[in-house]
Amino acid sequence: MTIRVAIAGPRGKMGSEAVHTVMKNDNMELVAVLDHREIADSLEDYAEFPNNYCIPVYTDLESLFKTERPDVFVDLTTPETVYKHTKEALLNGVRPVIGTTGFTDEQLEELTELSTELKLGTIIAPNFAIGAILMMKFSQMAAAYLPDVEIIEMHHDRKLDAPSGTANKTAQLIQENRRGHKQGHPDEVETIEGARGADIDGMRIHSVRLPGLVAHQQVLFGGEGQLLTLRHDSFSRSSFMSGVKFSIEKVMELDDLVYGLENIL
Ligand SMILES: NC(=O)c1ccc[n+]([C@@H]2O[C@H](COP(=O)([O-])OP(=O)(O)OC[C@H]3O[C@@H](n4cnc5c(N)ncnc54)[C@H](O)[C@@H]3O)[C@@H](O)[C@H]2O)c1
Ligand SMILES: O=C(O)C1=N[C@H](C(=O)O)CCC1
């Protein structure tokens, strides 16, 4: 069976990689892309794509769904638009595969309910890279034994959301194995606001944004006389593509929402 795929954000750093990934796969067909400004009618008219990429470009999601009837909708856009896109996909009977980060807990809850109600698979993956997923799982395991944890996530300086989706997900997995408690000195004072980072149940998250970075995270576990550091680095967006391909195939078998690839790998 050929899976009909639509991609939102085709000219972005992730979206353009995803376009090539789908075009290269024999069991997938890229039927359309969604851009937020009309630059051209077809992907082949964009300088960054080859001449044989004869794929229609839409700026309206509803008409894309109605005209092209994709099976799967891949979103790699912005935190501002992703929730609306995901909901619209589900309401049009299209299975979402979402790489865009920045969902609120309430939005995740609502989309989970909608996906279950419609019996339509959805994958929301804060990180598609297998190494990052392993880092998150190992962090969850380590937290049961070393519950004093600080997460340092480091990304390129074009990133819109902080903390990263990966850091949020890591913290959520750790919370399942760690009793909440305040870390550091009970009387510590921040002389500059934010110096100790974001606080999740006493665990700290620090977000670094610098040019030159792609996507990196360290999870630090401190114990008596010891430090365990778990680190993952994505040096290029190609690290995410096997996860994108896997998700497009897997979502066809699901009938509810999966948040995080660690649940289905
Ligand atoms: N899950 C993962 O493994 C993973 C990996 C990398 C990035 N991301 C996430 O993917 C998202 C995109 O990242 P990026 O680095 O490619 O960003 P980017 O800024 O390079 O690309 C985003 C693209 O979306 C387009 N866009 C914006 N609003 C749109 C709309 N309403 N409709 C259609 N297109 C729209 C922009 O024109 C841009 O081309 C971010 O949320 C990022 O956090 C996730
Ligand atoms: O480049 C980004 O932006 C990334 N975002 C994801 C996150 O927020 O965790 C995954 C890694 C890259």
UniProtKB/TrEMBL annotation:
User: Which positions are annotated as binding NADP(+)?
Assistant: 37
Q: Which residues form a coiled coil?
A: none
Keyword DNA repair annotated: no
Query: What pathway annotation does it carry?
Result: Amino-acid biosynthesis; L-lysine biosynthesis via DAP pathway; (S)-tetrahydrodipicolinate from L-aspartate: step 4/4
**Record keywords, A-Z:** Amino-acid biosynthesis, Cytoplasm, Diaminopimelate biosynthesis, Lysine biosynthesis, NAD, NADP, Oxidoreductase
Which SUPFAM superfamilies does the entry link to?
Glyceraldehyde-3-phosphate dehydrogenase-like, C-terminal domain, NAD(P)-binding Rossmann-fold domains
Q: Which residues bind (S)-2,3,4,5-tetrahydrodipicolinate?
A: 156, 165-166
Locate the active site.
Answer: 155 (proton donor/acceptor), 159 (proton donor)
List residues of the Dihydrodipicolinate reductase C-terminal domain.
131-265
Query: Which Pfam families does the UniProt record give?
Result: DapB_C, DapB_N
Q: Which reaction does it catalyse?
A: (S)-2,3,4,5-tetrahydrodipicolinate + NAD(+) + H2O = (2S,4S)-4-hydroxy-2,3,4,5-tetrahydrodipicolinate + NADH + H(+); (S)-2,3,4,5-tetrahydrodipicolinate + NADP(+) + H2O = (2S,4S)-4-hydroxy-2,3,4,5-tetrahydrodipicolinate + NADPH + H(+)
EC main class here is oxidoreductase
NAD as UniProt keyword:
yes
Q: Where in the cell is it found?
A: Cytoplasm
Q: Which HAMAP family match?
A: DapB
Q: Which family does it belong to?
A: Belongs to the DapB family.
Q: What does this protein do?
A: Catalyzes the conversion of 4-hydroxy-tetrahydrodipicolinate (HTPA) to tetrahydrodipicolinate.
Q: Which NCBIfam families would you find in this protein's record?
A: dapB (TIGR00036)
Which named protein is this?
4-hydroxy-tetrahydrodipicolinate reductase
Q: State the species of origin.
A: Viridibacillus soli
